[in-house]
Amino acid sequence: MCLAVPGKILEIQGEDPLFRRGRVSFGGIVKQVSLACVPEAKIDDYVLVHVGMALSIVDEAEAQQVFSYLKEMGELEELAPPGTGPAP
Fold first, then answer.
1. Domain of 37: which CATH number?
2. Spatial contact of 80 and 70, defined as CB atoms under 8 Å apart
3. Residue 19 DSSP SS3
4. How far apart are alpha carbons 16 and 21 in whole angstroms?
5. 84 domain residue, yes or no
6. Considering the entire predicted model, what is its pTM?
């Protein structure tokens, strides 16, 4: 199943809106994400990410709720690096 997963922006690189990238934390697992679709996003914002692309900004409460549901469904294992087990 393809899902957008909420994550918190830790760092932003780049000035050009089309090439801005961010380091985003998904419950402790950090990945590089394109921020091209959310030019207004800033550090500490929560974004919904699908296939390495932040699609929208969400509030923290919504992000935490979605993350909790994904944990319950067992959909977070694919975020963890191979051999490390499921995401916390």
1. 2.30.30.140
2. no
3. coil
4. 10
5. no
6. 0.80
